[in-house]
Specification:
This protein is α/β, with parallel strands linked by helices. The protein is 40% helix and 17% strand.
């Protein structure tokens, strides 16, 4: 289906001296399936009407200026004619310009000439300005139809315009297919939005959840020896004991330790390993070289003993799941999205944008007050 497009063309000129010429140009544009536009009925004479002219030029695809032997009425503020103001505005708006200049204005009759030397000087300057663009010269009104028709053919090739079409021709099969695709996409996005809103309504409010400096009970299983076993020389791998142990820690400390592992996604196995390492460090700090500890060894009547060696720690499954779910509910972690081989059946997690910001706040090293530098451990001193 071929769509007929019509370009709108603004016709600019002085009026009284170029009535026949304007009529010839208008008729040619109509025959070329263009839509002529001009201000014949509303000649510009003040700022308000010139604002209207600018709006009409904005809607046009091309601009035609016809110049004979008169410069035209001069605007008091701009000190140039309204025709030149229209031309300058069209150029500023990057409208393709077609100029039609009288080839020998000196032979025009007095009624079609400016006798004022100042106006003649302004006209010459205006003609020079127009001649920097597409220009054709005419001497009689009958010269214009052919020149305008040729200029329209040339400018349609060099500067294709959007133009106007009938409303009933706007809906081409391609446009209809595109609209159908867009409607389907909108429907899909609306469904996604509703799902997201539903999930948001069903999810807990982070403000109601423990977080930050709130404490959590970290539970793990320790592999250890009593100090008395070590002292007796009977500490072997085969007789290491296992026991549940727990300690209190803030959510910020857990996240500060675990989050770096999730900057580039981490498997749940890796997360368990990292949290187990945290358990081991805390158990060694709290139990070794401390007062006798009542570690649960299965004998309720057994007196507290001193722990002498801790060799391994593993976070309990329930404790790990609580931590994982809590950070997900707080919006700090989310499921990983990287593609992996089908043989990799592990579950992966990564930081959310909020989680990344939280990690930066907790672990980024900030400048403090200037202090005297201290030697690093192992650094020689004089």
């Amino acid at each position: 289906m071929t769509i007929e497009k019509r370009e709108q063309v603004f016709i600019s000129s002085t009026f009284k001296d170029l009535v026949e010429e304007r009529r010839a140009v208008l008729q040619t544009l109509l025959e070329a399936d263009c839509i002529p536009a001009g201000m014949e009925l509303f000649p510009a004479s003040d700022d308000e009407k010139f604002d209207l002219i600018k709006k009409v030029i904005d809607l046009c695809d091309y601009y035609v200026v016809i110049v004979g032997g008169r410069y035209g009425s001069v605007d008091d503020k701009a000190e140039i004619s309204y025709t030149e103001m229209e031309f300058d505005y069209a150029v500023k708006q990057k409208k393709p310009v077609m100029g039609f200049l009288h080839g020998d204005p000196g032979k025009l009759i007095a009624d079609k000439l400016d006798l004022d030397p100042e106006l003649r000087k302004k006209l010459d300057s205006f003609r020079t300005k127009i001649e920097q663009r597409m220009v054709k010269y005419w001497k009689e009104p009958n010269d214009l139809p052919g020149q305008v028709a040729l200029a329209i053919m040339q400018i349609r090739k060099s500067s294709p315009a959007v133009g106007w079409i009938r409303a009933d021709e706007a809906m081409t099969p391609e446009v209809k297919a595109e609209l159908a695709e867009l409607r389907a996409r909108v429907k899909e996005l609306n469904a996604d939005l509703k799902d997201e809103q539903r999930q948001h309504l069903d999810s807990p409010d982070p403000a109601d959840l423990v977080q930050g400096e709130d404490e959590f009970v970290l539970e793990c299983i320790l592999e250890f020896h009593w100090q008395e076993t070590i002292d007796s020389g009977n500490a072997y791998q085969r007789n290491r004991l296992k026991s549940h142990w727990n300690t209190r820690i803030t959510w910020n400390k857990i996240f500060k330790h675990l989050a770096p592992e999730l900057m580039d996604e981490a498997s749940e196995d890796g997360m368990v390993e990292s949290l187990s390492a945290l358990c081991l460090t805390m158990a060694q700090d709290e139990l070794l070289e401390s007062e006798p500890e009542a570690v649960d060894s299965g004998d309720a009547q057994e007196k507290p003993k001193r722990v002498g060696g801790i060799y391994d720690a593993e976070i309990t499954t329930d404790c790990f799941n609580d931590i994982k779910v809590q950070f997900a509910a707080l919006g700090l972690i989310e499921s990983g999205v990287k593609r992996r081989p089908a043989s990799d059946t592990k579950t992966y997690w990564k930081l959310t944008e909020r989680g990344s910001l939280q990690l930066l706040n907790l672990r980024a090293i900030r400048r403090g007050p200037a202090v005297a530098s201290k030697p690093l451990e192992g650094e020689l001193q004089e």
